[in-house]
Amino acid sequence: xxxxxxxxxxxxxxxxxxxxxxxxxxxxxxxxxxxxxxxxxxxxxxxxxxxxxxxxxxxxxxxxxxxxxxxxxxxxxxxxxxxxxxxxxxxxxxxxxxxxxx
Amino acid sequence: xxxxxxxxxxxxxxxxxxxxxxxxxxxxxxxxxxxxxxxxxxxxxxxxxxxxxxxxxxxxxxxxxxxxxxxxxxxxxxxxxxxxxxxxxxxxxxxxxxxxxx
DNA sequence: TTGACAAATAGAAAATCGTGAATATAATAT
DNA sequence: ATATTATATTCACGATTTTCTATTTGTCAA
Lengths: 102, 102
What we know:
The structure is a homodimer.
Chain A: H1 5-13, H2 18-27, E1 32-33, H3 34-40, H4 45-57, E2 61-66, E3 69-74, H5 76-90
Antiparallel strand pairs in A: 1-3, 2-3
Chain A binds a DNA duplex through residues 13, 17, 19, 33-35, 43-53, 65, 67-70, 100.
């Protein structure tokens, strides 16, 4: 998983906001259309649209347009990718080194 | 892994900033003292201190004081916890439901 | 084509975040 | 005790983010 630091930061922005976390929890129940999400969150439609854009940009959520409705769902592949990126960023491959004392 | 949405958001703030991602990458080489991190990043000491606080609050990084030096390292347990929280937030346990069309 | 509805975009206000200068605290050395 | 060094905290400022209102775009039904 090679990703620029910028892209990595963007990816995890998905889970850095309480409303987006709520949205993810709602989507765990399966694909939902935007209007349903809107009913469950106390935010306006443009605000939801903004958050969905961030979630889709992270690729953890995918959107599907059907007529005038947008359906959103969690992408298991996207979620796995995020976990891979997180792992690649947090496993320790060294012993550390001493610097200040000797 | 039960965590409030607020706590979850805080946890992933660790990986939402490019400098913090750089810091994690440096810590993958093992425990480092703050002064070494400071040398490798083009930020001031108070800024580093600020980022280290966010990283430690997320519990992905732990700090250890030794004399006047602070040593930081990645906590594998903290990283695993973050992955568990992320998983708990992104696995899909439902089929979704239809709302707008029938 | 017109009207109605869903979602996206533009623009602006408010809140949050990242940053550095100045200062404070803590630990060591003289 | 005083000086020095490493880190943390405080404060202020600019940048970014979240949010809203207003508007636009896209789609379907009369």
